[in-house]
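Subject: Calcyphosin-like

B.,
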Amino acid sequence: GTARHDREMAIQAKKKLSKTTDPVERLRLQCLARGSAGIKGLGRVFRIMDDDNSRTLDFKEFMKGLNDYAMMIDKEEAQEIFQIFDKDGSGTIDFDEFLVTLRPPMSKARKEIVMQAFKKLDKTGDGVITIEDLRGVYNAKHHPKYQNGDWTEDQVFRAFLDNFDSPYDKDGKVTTEEFMNYYAGVSASIDTDVYFIIMMKNAWKL
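Prediction pasted inline below.
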């Protein structure tokens, strides 16, 4: 039911946007209004812009990233957000820290169940989920496109991984961070821990 969650989340986010004045919350809601992958997508835009691989952005890059991702934020608001993240006043922000803060907060119980699912999928235990990892865990044969002969088993696996992978740079590998980011998005649309945990247990047979 991720598509449904995504729609619900986008509607909720848009409603809240008109009420909130907190700049970080506004940015978070604008990302969530694009569905579970919204925050991840912004992260990818920043990664692409980080030419020197410093994993940091100065204000100009930050502003350009927001514009490239079509975020409705004026310069003053962007400056306010930037200053919140530039804790040491160095004029740059660490974008991993930025994305973690932007991610909707998840309770400890939710994080634990997401990690359980990740570990179950990460057969090789190397901290990355790949097609190889999925072979024994995820049954591709139930997929309608496999059943009607459109896709091979590997294509089903790849499409499955692409759900969690970031939209602009799908490499067929899903890191803990990408998996957590994805579920932070899903989690934002689910009110109770109990329901979230039941959903995860059913989805991953935990």
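The two ends are 18 Å apart (CA to CA).

T.
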